[in-house]
Design brief:
CATH superfamily of the largest domain: Dihydrodipicolinate Reductase, domain 2
Strand order of the largest sheet: 12-11-7-10-9-8-15
Largest sheet: 7 strands, mixed
CATH topology of the largest domain: Dihydrodipicolinate Reductase, domain 2
Order of helices and strands: EHEHEHEHEHEHEHHEEEEEEEHHHE
Number of domains: 2
Strand content: 15-25%
Distance between the termini: 30 Å
Bound molecules: (2R,3S,4s,5R,6S)-2,3,4,5,6-pentahydroxycyclohexanone
CATH class of the largest domain: Alpha Beta
Number of strands: 15
Oligomer: single chain
């Protein structure tokens, strides 16, 4: 079966998803590219040879010639669009966050549970990254012993705009770390503290968080959206018997002028290209079988990451340790 895919939102990530669907995913046909900026939708559709394009998202969600949808439109549209698509029985890959509003996450979960079947996969693509997969395997095989700590660094070259805040670092960038730590350790986060050093200029300073888990582990997360030197993500998982770290893959090394250098990517699209491809291929399996893939993030995971982020913003403002108040996990997500 060829899956006809619509990509809603043709900005940075939407354009990348469209390209991946068109070029790297067997059994997928890029049926529709949608963006409220019609010229942008047209440009992405032309570049990817999509069948059609539109500037009307509401109409796009209702089209009969679409089997599955990738949502990469602005964050505030994620919850309403996913709810419309659940009601239509479509399978959806929704870029993170599911929503930044906790009540909206709960609403989407309720709508999905009412159908009795999973409909949404949340785009926490790091679950498909080789380095994190190796960490998962090392833990599962007992090589590390009991996991004690996970350290994370998440650095961007520069913020997309100057009004970017510490709270946005927590709600926009850090959810990747919240999700991957929960996924690898198989735990929920119980508390969080958040701190910021002082920069000498007026761009947003790094945010450093310490999370406690319900299995008494510690997770540290540094998000530095103005790291200045490149896109850099690192992690180390420390157990009682050993530790495992991500290792940056360098395809080449430049030796010149008495020094040696490897390049950094400018942003996540290059760094995580293979990971997005693996995720989007897994999404096709979900569309075809209706079974949420083992690695995929569910709406529960989307809710959990959003809730930790929401609590993290509170901790940043209060300066004290804040408790993450989760609902009981519905049996549907067991
Ligand atoms: C950004 O906000 C994202 O959404 C990307 O997925 C992430 O990799 C990047 O570092 C974030 O800042």
């Amino acid at each position: 079966m060829v899956v006809r895919v619509a990509v809603i939102g043709a900005g940075v990530m939407g354009a990348d998803h469209a390209k991946i669907i068109a070029q790297d995913v067997p059994n997928a046909c890029l049926q529709l590219v949608c963006d409220m900026d019609g010229a942008r939708a047209r440009a992405v559709a032309d570049a990817t040879s999509a069948v059609d394009c539109t500037d009307d998202p509401e109409a796009a969600l209702l089209r009969e010639d679409i089997d599955a949808v990738i949502i990469a439109s602005p964050d505030f549209t994620h919850a309403p669009y996913t709810k419309t698509l659940i009601a239509r029985g479509k399978r959806v890959l929704c870029e993170k966050p599911l929503s930044q509003k906790i009540d909206e996450c709960l609403d989407v979960m309720a709508a999905e549970q009412a159908t009795g079947a999973p409909h949404i996969m949340v785009g926490f693509m790091r679950r498909y990254d080789r380095a994190y997969l190796d960490m998962r395997e090392a833990l599962a095989k007992g090589v590390l012993g009991r996991a004690l700590m996970m350290h994370n660094f998440h650095r961007n070259l520069a913020t997309p705009y100057s009004s970017f805040t510490g709270a946005m670092a927590i709600t926009n960038s850090a959810p990747h770390e919240f999700d991957i730590a929960r996924y690898l350790l198989g735990v929920e986060v119980t508390t969080i503290t958040a701190h910021q050093p002082r920069r000498s200029d007026d761009v947003v300073a790094p945010v450093v968080m310490v999370l406690e888990t319900d299995d008494d582990q510690l997770v540290t997360v540094e998000v530095n959206n103005n790291a200045a030197y490149g896109y850099d993500v690192r992690a180390e998982l420390v157990g009682e018997l050993g530790s495992i770290s991500t290792n940056k893959v360098a395809h080449s090394r430049l030796d010149a002028r008495l020094s040696s250098a490897i390049r950094y990517d400018e942003d996540w699209r290059g760094h995580y290209h293979d990971t997005y491809v693996a995720q989007n291929r897994d999404f096709m399996g979900f569309v075809q079988t209706g079974i949420l893939p083992e690695a995929a993030a569910s709406t529960w995971d989307g809710y959990a990451a959003a809730l930790v982020a929401d609590t993290g913003v509170r901790a940043l403002h209060s300066g004290v340790k804040e408790r993450v108040e989760m609902i009981k996990k519905p049996a549907f997500y067991a």
